[in-house]
Queue: 2 jobs
Job 1
Amino acid sequence: MTKTHPSFVLLLALICVSCVDGGSQRGIWTGTVRDSAGIRIVENPEFGLWTPETAWRLEEDLRIGVVEGDANLQFGEITGIDVFSDGRIVVRDRLAEHQLRVFSNEGGFLYEFGSTGSGPGELGRGLAVPQVGFGDTLFVPDIGRQRICVYTADGTHVASVRTAIPASEGTPLWDVTSQGTLVAQLSTKPMPNNQEETLTDFLVGFDLDGGIDSLFSFPSAAILKTLPSGLPRVTLFSPEPAWAFGDDGILWYGPGEPYRVHVYENGELASIVSKTGATTEITQADRDVVIGAWEQIFGDAFRDMATFAEVLPAYQRFLRGPENTLWVQLIEPPGNLTEEEVEDFDPEGGYGGDTWDVFDSEGRFLGSVIMPPSFEPFRFSGGALYGIWQDEMEVDFVKRLRLVN
């Protein structure tokens, strides 16, 4: 564990604040808002509202983990992080399959809980990311045993809720709404020999009585189809939908391309937010990097299964930020990677880069933040961003970045 001294804070994220006219430099928003059939249309310029004086930045103030030493501070492969209301940090490590570790706000190890089995409070294989809900209730989806285990913040088992977690193509994504509902994104599986089939993803909510409620649906990413021959056809760089829940019943949803965010309030489309910027065509360098990475996994035959979209997606992920801001992870063209970065490139992780656009609660573009390299953000809590960081040896650490604005 390393606690960064305040006088030697390393600034790990710089704000990209660029402007082309005096209005933007003075912090005057130059976008437009109009009404279309009762839907608010927010059109943002390419450059944000922040000035160098008002821009947000992120500073590292906590790192948990060691390469050697205390076993409680060593991680194999961190797959989930969340934060309790008092700042305690809960971590799931894939190599400690049936246990969760909890650390103090200062990064010290406090306790662990969970054990293998099918009894009350015991956990099976295939755990999803732990999620902290209302009252510091901790939800741990145990997909293998078709139940959701519920704990208090001190690790006391409260309930194991039996529920039929529907089968999903790929790993489900999980989150908790501002109202405390546990939600998963479930993807349907393509049927053989059906090239025209339009598939649907669902956001489903789980309650503590074992019930499941469909909250929202949207077209699946058109990445995989099955040819009449029975062979798969993979469309690389196909846009994938992104979503996140905001405060007070807000759902942000985007199709991935073009740069557009649909804002739903209590289930109804309320506004559409867009941002000016030319689409990025896919280069031969992009193709070569991605094909090479997939061939490392599936062999030379993958090249015959692959085709490409025409342009890069606009973004990869959405993340709820402080003050009901929306953070949008932009795509990093693989062709821009250095030789060393190409060697470490994991195509299964997507094409998201270190740059995140930030929008306020009204949909106005504020500016862009550059995350630290090799950092995967998980959750904002208490004015800080928590995530996983890997060092040059690919050792996992928990890292906290304090938001300064």
Job 2
Amino acid sequence: MAECSCPEKPGEPTVARCPRNGSIGTGVDRQTVKGLLTEEALRRLTPSDYRFCADADCDVVYFDANGSCFGTRDIRVQVWHKHPFGDRPMCYCFGESEVSIRREIQTTGTSSAVERIREHIAAGRCACKIRNPRGACCLGDMIAAIKRVEGALRSEVAAGEALGDIHAGQRDFLDR
């Protein structure tokens, strides 16, 4: 069956795909891109609408419809989507990371990172639109990160239990 050759309807956004891997990109404010590019990369910025590529297997962070790309080396901060689990920044405004989440859970049995971020948002301190490479609020990512860290800790504790190498605090965490 042939593809439709109808012209695009006016006002319908076109699907922008990463020129390296074909992933659908999400729109990101140009101000975010400008704020996070290195000095050298900023010299290559053109007036265009940029998209964010979240694919972990792709080095491209930002791209436009003309094929212009900015990779991880062009960005001032570590883009958590592009790095393996374990030591990634999750909240670019208030410094929450997988390491800080892990440390807090190991110390207290839980993470209050989401509540802390919500308090900052309520106080008008959030700047995710500018600081987060995705150009959006990190709260959903933070909730998912806490679940990933908890899952990893549970696996580690369960493995330690199977080997007979588990402490009382670890057993309490596993029982929750």
